[in-house]
Amino acid sequence: MAETTVTIASPGGVRVRPASRIAQEAKGYASDILFQVDGKEASAKSLFSLQMLEMSHGKEILIVAKGRDAQTAVEAMAKLVESVVL
Questions:
Q1: Cα(75)–Cα(4) distance, rounded to whole angstroms?
Q2: Phi, psi (deg, nearest 5) at residue 74
C-alpha cells in the first residue's frame, strides 16, 4: 500500500476534463487507487465517482493505492493532480 496527499492548486479545481484524464491514467495501473476528499472516497478509475468528490481549489486529496504497482500509481496520480491547470 502507498499513499500521499496533494493540494489542488488549479483555480478551477478538478473539473470534468482533468478528472477524465485522471480516470484514464488510473485505469492503466493494476492497483486499486482511491481518492479521499473531505471524508468522501472514490475510485480514481471512475470518472463519475471522481466528479462526486467536488475537488475544488485548495482542497487536499489523499491518494491511496493498493496492489503490485501502488507506489508508481500514487506518484503518477499525484503528479497528474498537481499538473492540472484550468
A1: 8
A2: -60, -45
